[in-house]
Amino acid sequence: MPHRPLSRPAARRLARGFTLLELLVVMVIIGLLAGIVAPQYFTQLGKSNAKVARAQIESFGQALDQYRLDVGGYPSTEQGLAALRAAPADLPRWQGPYLKRDIPADPWGRPYVYTAPGQHGDYDLVSLGSDGQPGGEGDAADVNSW
Question: Which residues are listed as membrane-spanning (predicted)?
Answer without folding.
Answer: 20-42
